Amino acid sequence: MNFELTPDQLAIRNHVSDLLKEVCPPEYAAKCDEEQTPPRAAFDALAKNGWLGIIGPEEYGGSGGGATELAILLGEVGYHFEELGMWVFRNLSYGCFAVLEHGTKEQIESIVPRVIRGELSFCFGLTEPDSGSDASALRTKATLEGDHYIINGRKVYTSGMDISDYCLLVTRTSTLEKKQQGITNFLVDTKLNGIEVKKLQTLGQRAIGTTEVLYSDARVPANMVLGQVGEGWKGADAYLCYERLCLSAARTGAARAAFDFALEHAKTRQQFGRPIGKFQAISHKFADMKTMLDVSETMIYRYAWLMENKRATRQDAAILKLYTSESYKAISDMCLQVLGGYGYCMEYPMQRFFRDSRLATIGAGTSEIQRNIIASSLGL
Ligand SMILES: Cc1cc2nc3c(=O)[nH]c(=O)nc-3n(C[C@H](O)[C@H](O)[C@H](O)COP(=O)(O)OP(=O)(O)OC[C@H]3O[C@@H](n4cnc5c(N)ncnc54)[C@H](O)[C@@H]3O)c2cc1C
Questions:
Q1: Per-residue pLDDT at 177
Q2: CB neighbour list of residue 131: distance below 8 Å, 6 or more residues apart
Q3: Which fold has domain 7-120?
Q4: CATH topology of domain 234-377
Q5: Atom 53, ligand 1: which residue's CA is nearest?
């Protein structure tokens, strides 16, 4: 395992950083959050500069990078604006990775090049009102009628559905003995008749946010099944493991941004005649945070290496998700404390890190569920 980034990989970080300094400065991220508008201009700039093709094969216009390149990109995007990172990750995870893994030739050729060019956006519809942590207990039903499936059900927390062209939708096509059986995934055109989308108001992640979606007799062509009918859970589980790398990278990038902001404050804010960072109570927070950031980054590159070498397990993904999420939550909390009253004011960015980070230990599998996965892999 080699943790040293190559010159090409370091160049990715530098190029993305330079671009985002220009198109996604802190005031832009703050405005998107405040006005609840997606960071479209920054997203388009990433697409125009080829970054949405980072994992796409060259024949479809991508640059053929692996999990490490993906982690570098998302780390840098997350540093500048976490929600931009979420938008990029959804497109790369569902519009590229999932379609490339399980799509037909027609699906790949009609979708992947357009995702790479930034012309199509993707979201993921798994969670339902009665199936959150118990995700495979989902009930949204897809019934075959001729050459279409008729979809009925309700999804919650489908993030970015209102700005997406396709939703990778997880449905039930039959009820069998095990709840993980009889699940089928679809690439659903979000503008179909019979789909109603309602934006949800949330504590954080407010620029793009999340939605509730009602499917009432939505007719999806049978050729939009992704993978095998009835075998969708294996796919969904693989997408979730991929998602755990993407989320960990983007959120550790955001944690690093909060850390840098608070460090600057600790060096300049004077109380009792000295910078507050000179008080041990403050400086030790930075020592703890730096340790968490370094461990998180090491774990991210380790996991990327395991993925590239086809050795990543569900346990590895759960350990990564658990540690990086809890670290981000702890870091944003400590940084807010370091800023004192400024941390609590809406005109400073720290409150956004604090609000956004709260989702890390909830979304894409809670910390409790990650602990369950790790414990069960130990035979407990
Ligand atoms: C802002 C936001 C964006 C999201 N985006 C998406 C998205 O794009 N697509 C999507 O499909 N989903 C999305 N989700 C859903 C997210 O993945 C779920 O919220 C999460 O999996 C938890 O499910 P739940 O909210 O129903 O909580 P519940 O499952 O009801 O859990 C409530 C509490 O009970 C605990 N708990 C439950 N079961 C166990 C157990 N067996 N052992 C120990 N503790 C347990 C949980 O850890 C949690 O603390 C999003 C959620 C939010 C809030």
A1: 83
A2: 137, 138, 139
A3: Butyryl-Coa Dehydrogenase, subunit A; domain 1 (1.10.540)
A4: Butyryl-CoA Dehydrogenase, subunit A; domain 3 (1.20.140)
A5: 363
Residue-wise pLDDT tens digits, 146-194: 999 999 999 999 999 999 999 999 999 998 889 999 999 999 999 999 9
What is the distance between the alpha carbons of residues 253 and 300, in angstroms, rounded to a whole number? Answer: 11
Q: Phi-psi region for residue 229, left (φ > 0), alpha (ψ -120 to 50) or beta?
A: beta
Nearest residue CA, atom 35 of ligand 1? 368
- Helix residue ranges, H only, the chain: 7-23, 26-35, 40-48, 67-80, 82-90, 99-102, 105-116, 232-268, 280-308, 314-339, 341-344, 350-357, 367-377
What are the extents of the domains in the chain? 7-120, 124-230, 234-377
Residues of the chain with pLDDT under 70: 1-3
Task: Please choose from 157, 171, 186 the residue to mutate so as to test ligand 1's pocket, defined by most ligand atoms within 8 A of CB.
Answer: 157
What's this model's pTM, rounded to 2 decimal places?
Answer: 0.97
**Chain centre distance of CA 348:** 24
Q: Which of 55, 68, 51 is nearest to 5 (CA)?
A: 68
**Architecture per CATH, 124-230:** Beta Barrel (2.40)
**What letter does residue 173 receive in the DSSP assignment?**
S
What is the Å distance from ligand 1's center to 360 Cα?
Answer: 11
The pLDDT value given to residue 29: 98
CB contact at 8 A, 157 and 127: yes
pLDDT confidence of residue 71: 98
